């Protein structure tokens, strides 16, 4: 997609996405055979459920139908969220990743996998998991030291509330 088409689409669609309480994260036009696919990625601090995605999809579709932003050829509109292993590129992405495990590619210190604890304007405070029975350690990472960051999928993580519930149950059984 040309930069001008991308910019035109962003200028056209971003106000609609914002009016639905979402952030426009990404726009991409890909060719699939003879057809084109317009992929729009949206998100918000509270997440984007299927109803919100459907609402914004209808609004975007109507707006695109009334303009020539996609030209005369056929295209398919796909609206979705960034996905589980999203890249963190904006300050708001780091805020949304609070309490999530993130793989950081640091400019000088290589890779680091840590849980995001807090985020401010200068960087993130993280908890680096302990290895082989060692305790987790806290660390501060400045945004200027981060080359790339990506949320990691956790399949076996015990939620804090689940852990507290299990502890409470055990105490009740012992009483």
Structure overview:
The protein contains four helices and eight strands, in the order H-E-E-H-E-H-E-E-E-E-E-H. The protein is elongated and about 60 Å long. A hairpin with a 3-residue loop joins strand 4 and strand 5. The relative contact order is 0.11. Helix 1 crosses helix 2 (50-65). It has helices spanning 3-19, 50-65, 91-96, 160-174, and strands spanning 23-32, 35-43, 75-80, 101-106, 110-119, 123-128, 137-142, 146-151. 31% of the residues lie in helices and 34% in strands. The strands form two sheets. It has a five-stranded antiparallel sheet with strand order 7-6-5-4-8. Strands 1-2-3 form a three-stranded mixed sheet, with helices on one face. It has 175 residues and is of the alpha+beta class.
Please sum up the structure shown.
It contains four helices and eight strands. It is α+β, with helices and mostly antiparallel strands and 175 residues long.
């Amino acid at each position: 997609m040309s930069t001008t088409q991308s910019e035109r689409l962003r200028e056209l669609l971003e106000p609609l996405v914002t009016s639905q309480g979402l952030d426009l994260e990404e726009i991409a036009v890909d060719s699939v055979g003879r057809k084109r696919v317009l992929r729009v990625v949206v998100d918000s601090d509270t997440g984007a459920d299927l109803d919100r995605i459907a609402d914004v999809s209808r609004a975007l579709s109507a707006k695109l139908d009334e303009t020539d932003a996609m030209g005369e050829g056929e295209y398919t509109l796909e609206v979705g969220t960034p996905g589980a292993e999203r890249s963190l590129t904006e300050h708001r992405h780091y805020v949304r990743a609070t309490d999530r495990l993130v793989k950081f590619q640091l400019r000088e210190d290589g890779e680091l996998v840590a849980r995001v604890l807090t985020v401010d304007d200068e960087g993130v405070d993280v908890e680096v998991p302990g290895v082989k029975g060692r305790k987790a350690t806290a660390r501060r990472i400045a945004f200027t030291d981060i080359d790339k960051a990506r949320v990691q999928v956790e399949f076996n993580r015990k939620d804090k509330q689940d852990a507290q519930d299990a502890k409470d149950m055990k105490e009740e059984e012992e009483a």
